[in-house]
Amino acid sequence: MSVIELLKKRISTRAFLDSPVEQDTVRALLDAARWSPSGGNVQPWKVIVVSGEARSEVTKRATAALARNPQGEAGDYPIYPEGLHEPYRSRRFQMGEDMYAIMGIAREDKAKRFQALARNFEFFGAPVGIFMVIDRAMGHGQWAHMGMFMQSLALAAEEMGLATCMQEAWAMVRDTLHEHFELPSNEMLYCGIALGCADREAPVNGLRTRRATVGEFADFRGFQRED
To answer: What does the alpha-carbon distance between residue 13 and residue 128 come to, in Å, rounded to a whole number?
Structure first.
C-alpha cells in the first residue's frame, strides 16, 4: 500500500479488538518512526509504552483522577486554545456531532456522552497504550517534530495491519500520570496513542471526518497558469 493510500486509510480508531500486540511489533513500529524528520536532529520525543497490568494501572489511576475532578486537571497546555474561533470551532463541533450520531448518542444525553469520553482512558479497548513525553524546554518547532514522529508511527501501524488513535484527552490527567511515571520536573506528558487491531464491525469506526478541500487552505503563487 502506498503512502498516499495509508494517509487516506488511517482514521482515529475508537473501538479495538482485544487481540494482543507483541512487544517486538511495537518495537518495530518505533524503530521505523525514529527516522521521522527532526530539525537539528534533536529528536525531542520520549515514549512510554504500556500493556497488560501496566496499562490497567494507568486506566485505574486516570479513572480515579476524573472521579475526583470530572473537568480534568488544570494545566498550562490545554487541549484546545481558549476562545477557538472560526472555522476551527465549527470543524470541531461538526466532528463531535458526526461521531455521536454514528454512535446513536443524542446531544442531550450527557451521561452517554461522558461514557464515550471515558473510553479514552481505557484506550478504547486497545491492548497497547503509547504515551508521548517531551522536555518542557522544547519550543514549537520541536513539538512539530514530535508530531511527525506520531504520524510516522500511525502510518507504519497501518502498513502492519494495526490501527491507532491519537488521544489528547490524556492531558486531562497529565499531573496524575506525571507522578505515576515518575517523570522529572523538566518533562511533561503530551498525549497518548491507542494501538491495536481495529474492530471493523463497530459503527464508530465508520466515521470519516470531513476535511477542507485543497482550495480552502492552499494559496498557490508563482506557478504558470494552467489551461
So the answer is: 13
Residues making up the chain, counted from first to last: 227
Gap between the Cα atoms of 4 and 17, Å rounded? 26
Crossing angle of helices 110-118 and 88-103, in 10° steps, is 100
Q: What is the mean pLDDT of residues 105-130?
A: 90
CA dist., res. 27 & res. 33, Å (int): 10
* pLDDT confidence of residue 112: 86
**To which H or E segment does residue 196 belong?**
strand 187-196
- Residue 79 is predicted with a pLDDT of 87
Torsion sign over Cα 103, 104, 107, 108:
negative
As a whole number of Å, the end-to-end CA separation of the chain is 33
Neighbouring CB atoms inside 10 A of 145's CB total 21
What would the pLDDT profile of 154-187 be if each residue is shown by its tens digit?
999 999 999 999 999 999 999 999 999 999 999 9
What is this structure's pTM?
A: 0.93
pLDDT at position 111: 86
| Rounded Cα distance, 190 and 178, in Å | 10
Spell out the SS3 assignment of 62-123.
HHHHHHHCCCCCCCCCCCCCCCCCCCHHHHHHHHHHHHHHHHCCCCCCHHHHHHHHHHHHHH
Domains detected in the chain = 3-73+85-208 (3.40.109.10)
